[in-house]
Amino acid sequence: METTVFLLAGGQSTRMGMNKALLEVDGKTMLERLKDEFQPLTSKMVLLTGSHSYSMDLPQLPDDASFRGCGPLAGIYTGLLHSDTEMNLFVACDMPFASRRIGKWMIDELAKTDQDAIIPMTDGILHPLFAVYKTSAKEAAKIQLKRKQYRLKEFLRLLDMKIVAEHDVPDALKAEYANAFWNMNDPESFKVVKTKIKGMKSNDV
After folding, report:
1. Which of 7, 70, 119, 171 has the smallest count of CB within 10 Å of its CB?
2. Model-level pTM?
């Protein structure tokens, strides 16, 4: 099923101290890594920039003017508002191990239902920033933005969503699923990512 992939790169990165989307991991910025990872899934990939601007050969969308500066929910709403596909995969730029195979699996799972979204969970924590939404979810996002209720947890409560966890994933994807939602928010976690990727490369040799 045709899907738009949205890369969320509009955050302020206050804890990291610099824009997470431009951090280099193994010679590529996070945005370059995610673009390369997910581009095989779709001919429709869009960069959601918030209030930033990037030198990258992808269509770029700033937050909708009515809700600029309202966090990732504004990015999700902006993406859904402009999407011309029913299925929409969102990936945050601070998830270095986000996997297109997990993304494709979530798209396929949502296509089997009439629900608004597939939201993955690990260790009891929901991950709405690497998830799949139908365009029908934009109304709930708009309601919450107008209410000035920007927390994603509250947005999700308005959706008819399917929560998936590791036990739902095919065995061949379980190892990827375990790492796919790991995110980096500060310099220490960035160091961990670089060490982890170095270790993964050594194991591939």
Report:
1. 171
2. 0.90
